[in-house]
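lol so apparently i was supposed to do this last week
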Amino acid sequence: MDKLDWLETFELGIPSVDADHRHLLNIMKQIETAANAAKFETCKDLLDELVVASKNHFTREEALLEETGYPNAAIHKDYHARLLSRAQSVKDVCKEIGTRENLKDCCHEMFEFLIDDIVKGDVNFKSFLEEKGLIKRS
Ligand SMILES: [Fe+2]
Ligand SMILES: [Fe+2]
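anyway here it is w/ fe (ii) ion bound
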């Protein structure tokens, strides 16, 4: 998946957040490999891992936004909650799938939510943190 490769080079410039995003990306790549090999059980375990890791990441990110006084912290928190519940439902669908192609499509659908956070959602607070001098301007 080209998007995953591209994402590897994408950085917000906030080391703790970038490290989390890379961790999520790493799990997505493992899911991709498992789905390609039609390893259904491995894929299921990794999908669980991805949701847990996302949840933890969102919690850490929300704490950072609150600490720094980001004015839209509550909005971003709601956005995370929505992404997570959608990801949960797609994950449940993925777990029921028995064919390789469908599994791949379903996994990709799950990635969309998380990629949305990284490249669309989080970009919104990047400039705020830059203005506050908390991260270096890129
Ligand atoms: Fe994020
Ligand atoms: Fe986020």
